[in-house]
Design a protein that fits this description.
single chain; about 550 residues; alpha+beta; 2 domains; 5-stranded mixed β-sheet; 5-stranded parallel β-sheet; 24 strands; binds 2-acetamido-2-deoxy-beta-D-glucopyranose
Length: about 550
């Protein structure tokens, strides 16, 4: 039984009620795929009161709210030029004993209902949320529709002791007007009730450890922790915390389309054309091939056949990938938003709006440019029951990167630890490794950005390991950073950003967090001490592999 102490106070707004919550010792901020992983391992370990704050009403990040229930895995093969020794990283990664068992189980529940070709398992996002994730999180504490607004630290300035958040509830008499994220976001972060929502202020206190699992690295900013965003001009990592604030990877608003039996009319595009026009293209593929790329439901037997009533996710580079503006505000504008108590995520609302327009524009272009037999037969599904929004675009954009922590002793996981000769078989074996992952360096560039020459080199990415130090921040002792906010370079992020890797990182972090709470640790770096590290690693192994199995041999075999 949980008892909430409720205070009613009147400051500026008579609606404002602040609810103090002091029984969430392990507090997970954000509902990314990584955060979900953390919640699910933490909740299996008894006696650690754990809560999670999710900005939308669907937990799961890229798996659900970002509308990508079509997870990629590594696919690449690397080869040494001198000897021709070849390592099929994709096939090693897909071996069952190298995968996170819960992730595999989750994907098997619905299976490959789309017969897509980008992923082994593509299924309908809404079903992935309601039938796969909801039963798993049934007995956990999630605060949905909740964003964070303010963080308080103790006098050492190194511990987070309080996180204030805003939770919104939809009004029953919701207005007809359908709002896009770019219009709605300021409302999420406002304490005031609006035409659409009533608000509750939540104040989380008595926190022992915080897991930064947000999509946008909001804990890093609000706790004034060192972070870096965007491109890094230098190969070996820039720990100045500056980076390039306006250039990084592009981002995408995904949506669902359905193929109808006969041509149907659709309302004309209600949004203005994307600024400057857009160059949509099929690239080297055909219309049909893009259709089956991330198809999530079909009656067709394989990915070569397009069938009536198919449902597909559109997530296409030369389509809805928005490449013109950077998602995050500059560090100084971000700090200004925080320091003037106007926090709204520190994101570029113009970029979000233009990305929405680009996505709609792509739908209309794709529909119009279909081969004759399919012309006017694709529709954007705008019902709440599909993407979970009135407009049909994903609740949240798919981001390839976030603000990234600068770790303990300036640690950044760097490219040399994940790349090398094929004959090395695997990346650098960190003593403090907590999980494994594999994917290629995959950068979707932005227009008007020049990328340092080292980024154009081809890196041979090995099956790699992720260390505890990548989950730390040099300024905050009770913070565990996971997923895209980890302490890693720009290049490494481009190879760790995949669903299965993020989920495994989260599962490991859930163990780290509960261990730290149960053992009354004050500082996450205490776990680097051998007596703790060995115990944590052995608990993590119950959730996710910490060694690679290659040709029947485990690396390392412990
Ligand atoms: C803090 O949380 C712990 C664990 O839930 C609980 O035992 C303790 O009473 C809480 N302290 C306060 C002041 O609420
Ligand atoms: C590597 O393969 C290429 C192409 O098959 C071949 O020409 C070359 O001799 C091979 N090199 C070695 C060292 O075996
Ligand atoms: C959640 O758990 C409750 C009881 O703990 C059960 O009645 C309910 O059916 C469960 N819901 C799902 C979706 O599993
Ligand atoms: C944030 O940290 C920097 C040092 O890293 C410090 O100079 C600055 O005053 C801090 N800002 C706030 C608002 O605490
Ligand atoms: C990369 O990381 C490894 C392991 O942390 C470290 O030993 C090495 O110095 C780093 N290399 C560069 C170029 O920063
Ligand atoms: C579209 O492509 C044309 C020709 O390659 C180019 O001139 C134009 O700048 C592009 N427009 C945008 C918005 O990228
Ligand atoms: C998914 O496809 C199956 C097989 O064609 C069909 O029975 C089912 O109704 C479809 N589901 C949706 C939500 O379209
Ligand atoms: C689509 O989504 C995946 C996430 O599964 C992402 O990694 C990828 O970069 C996106 N692809 C395109 C072509 O936009
Ligand atoms: C598709 O719809 C547009 C707009 O209604 C119409 O102009 C066009 O003739 C239609 N094309 C076909 C092949 O039905
Ligand atoms: C980021 O890179 C762009 C070019 O790609 C450059 O114009 C800009 O000045 C850089 N910004 C910073 C802060 O280095
Ligand atoms: C926590 O540990 C780090 C690394 O050992 C250290 O720099 C920091 O000062 C510690 N925090 C406190 C409050 O002692
Ligand atoms: C794995 O074993 C096969 C068959 O013995 C061999 O051809 C291949 O080179 C081995 N691969 C690696 C990565 O050791």
């Amino acid at each position: 039984m949980f008892v909430f102490i409720i205070f009613f106070i009147t400051i500026n707004s008579i609606h404002s009620s602040i609810r103090t919550i002091d029984d969430c010792q392990l507090l997970i901020i954000g509902g990314t795929t990584s955060a979900l992983g953390a919640l699910l391992s933490a909740s299996k370990i008894l006696n650690t009161p754990t809560c999670l704050l999710e900005p939308t009403d669907w937990i799961g990040g890229q798996l659900t709210a970002e509308l990508l229930s079509a997870p990629d895995f590594a696919y690449h093969i690397i080869k040494d030029k001198d000897t021709n020794f070849t390592l099929n990283v994709g096939s090693i990664d897909r071996q069952l004993n190298n995968q996170n068992p819960l992730f595999v189980k989750m994907l098997n529940i619905l299976g490959n209902t789309g017969h897509c070709w980008v992923s082994p398992k593509c299924s309908i996002p809404e079903l992935f949320h309601s039938q796969v994730i909801l039963p798993l999180v049934n007995n956990t504490r999630i605060f949905y529709n909740t964003v964070i607004k303010h963080i308080t630290k103790d006098s050492s300035n190194r511990r987070i002791i309080q996180i204030d958040a805003i939770q919104r509830s939809k009004r029953q008499t919701s207005s007809e007007h359908c709002r896009f994220l770019s219009e709605e976001l300021p409302d999420w972060y406002s304490k005031e009730d609006s035409l659409w929502f009533t608000k509750n202020e939540l104040s989380f206190r008595n926190i022992s450890f915080v897991i930064e699992g947000s999509s946008w690295g909001e804990v890093l900013v609000l706790s004034n922790a060192s972070y870096i965003q965007g491109l890094m001009e230098e190969f070996d990592g820039d720990t100045s915390g500056i980076g390039n604030s306006t250039c990084g990877q592009s981002f995408t608003f995904d949506f669902l389309e359905q193929l109808r039996e006969t041509p149907v009319d659709e309302l004309p595009n209600p949004l203005p054309e994307p600024t400057g026009g857009a160059n949509y293209s099929f690239e080297h593929l055909t219309w049909e091939r893009i259709w089956t790329y991330r198809r999530v439901n079909t009656s067709a037997p394989n990915s070569d056949i397009v069938a009536v009533n198919d449902l597909t996710i559109q997530n296409w580079s030369e389509g809805n990938d928005y490449r013109k503006e950077y998602f995050f505000l500059s560090p100084s504008d971000t700090q200004h938003q925080r320091d003037t108590n106007q926090w709204q995520g520190g994101v570029n609302l113009d970029a979000i709006e233009n990305a929405e327009r680009l996505a709609y524009g792509y739908h209309y272009w794709y529909r119009k440019n279909a081969p004759t037999q399919w012309t006017n037969r694709t529709v954007l599904i705008r019902s709440i029951s599909a993407a979970g929004t009135c407009h049909g675009l994903a609740k949240m954009p798919y981001l390839r990167e976030s603000r990234r922590s600068i770790g303990f002793e300036n640690f950044l996981m760097n490219i040399t630890t994940i790349s090398g000769y094929a004959r090395n078989l695997h990346g650098y074996i960190f003593d403090d490794r907590l999980c494994i992952g594999a994917y290629n360096v995959d950068i979707h560039s932005m227009v008007q950005c020049t990328y340092p020459s080292y980024m154009h080199e081809s890196y041979s990415i090995l099956p790699y390991y992720i260390p505890l130090r990548a989950m730390t921040n040099r300024d905050i002792d009770n913070l565990i950073v996971i997923g895209k906010t980890m302490a890693q370079t720009f290049l490494v992020n481009s190879a760790t950003r995949l669903h299965p890797v993020e989920f495994s990182i989260g599962q490991a972090a859930g163990v780290v967090g509960t261990y730290a709470v149960q053992n009354n640790l004050q500082n996450i770096t205490e776990i680097l001490r051998e007596e703790h590290l060995k115990r944590v690693q052995s608990i993590v192994k119950e959730f996710t592999p910490t060694s690679w199995t290659i040709n029947g041999t485990r690396y390392p075999d412990d």
